[in-house]
């Protein structure tokens, strides 16, 4: 057993899925602290006092300008990502195929564009976390462990 209590960032990820199966991504701007100029899934950090499903809906509104009703949101999996820069992140991944509003780049100060991506053939400039989430979504896996060594991941790997 290792040291103290483990603390990590929790991500809330919303895969907005069109009828043709494409998933909405945002392209981070070149000045982004994280994933500069890369495509990422719509999502962000859980805020204090917020439920993770509500956070995913908030992120869809903040990043893509759309509202997802709770009944139109489906939990699809959990991702535990160990960033190369250090520090684990736990991501709760949801999908929605129905929303209100027009998809747009609602955060032009953070994102260059919104892009519809085929999760089976994502572009090379997708962030590795997003690529892994797409693979999890496509295969129906409920859990993803990414960036952990075999020793860190233990028997679950």
Automatic annotation (TrEMBL):
* Cofactor(s) required, per the database record: Mg(2+)
Residue ranges occupied by any Nudix hydrolase domain in the UniProt entry: 6-139
Q: Would the keyword Hydrolase be found if you checked this record's keyword annotation?
A: yes
- What are the entry keywords? Hydrolase
The record's listing under InterPro entries reads: NUDIX_hydrolase-like_dom_sf, NUDIX_hydrolase_CS, NUDIX_hydrolase_dom
According to the lineage, what is the superkingdom?
Bacteria
Q: Which SUPFAM superfamilies match?
A: Nudix
GO function term, MF aspect, one: hydrolase activity
Q: Which PANTHER family match?
A: 8-OXO-DGTP DIPHOSPHATASE-RELATED (PTHR43046:SF2), GDP-MANNOSE MANNOSYL HYDROLASE (PTHR43046)
What name goes with this protein? Answer: Nudix hydrolase domain-containing protein
